Amino acid sequence: MRKSIPLRWIEEAEARSVREHAELHRAESEPHINIAFTTIRPTWFDWLRELPRILCRTVTLGRSSLLDSTIWVKGLSPTALRLSSIEVDYDRVLVAVLITDIVDSTKRVAEMGDRDWRVLLDQHDDATRYQIKRFGGREVGNHGDGFVGIFDSPARAVRCAAAIGDTIAPLGILVRSGIHVGEVFLKREEISGITVHIAARIAATAHPGEAFVSKTVRDLVAGSGLVFEDRGIHQLRGLPEEIHLFAMRAVGAPLTPASSI
Length: 261
Fold this sequence. Notes:
Blueprint: H1 5-29, H2 44-75, H3 78-84, E1 92-102, H4 105-112, H5 114-134, E2 138-142, E3 147-151, H6 154-168, E4 175-187, E5 190-192, H7 194-205, E6 210-214, H8 215-220, E7 229-234, E8 243-249
Parallel strand pairs: 4-6
Antiparallel strand pairs: 1-3, 1-4, 2-3, 4-5, 6-8, 7-8
């Protein structure tokens, strides 16, 4: 017997209601995903698949950069390449070096005692520093009984040496000085180089109360009005070549017979 139409409708409605209820229950139990606003991130497999292409691009860019650098270097002239390999001595300067030394300082300390010698030495130091500054010099060393100063003018270095001798003589002590011109390494207020050693040897050769200069200094100050006495050619200790020396006698210095030179 065929079901009546109203009964079939009721059964279909009930079946439809059961399906809708099951779908609603499943939807509530699953996480909600909004496809329209969700960004899909690449997995590690995607990165691995893209790795060969990324590496290929990096190598290509590196080769291009190296090629550009090679082309730029090849474009330089041989002279420019040669100059770029030469180290520039920014700390090497041309100066006149003045070195002073108190004559017989050890003997004077023994005669006077430490305390009195210290007082006298302080007066010597103050007078020497004043003259170095007065003549535009720069103190770069103090070895206890003498000073090292540098000047951008050899004439001022010579005049400073003479002024130091004039100032120190009334204190009852004599100084000897040496002056030479040349390039030195200047670093942190200290100088070094062969020019410094030559100036020290010249000072050691000078007579008490005198300032000895090299022939180089004498020639450079021509026309300055400074007058020098010829002190002959000397073989300075440690130097391979002889050097011609000249002197300016300071106040208080004993006269040196020409025959004793």
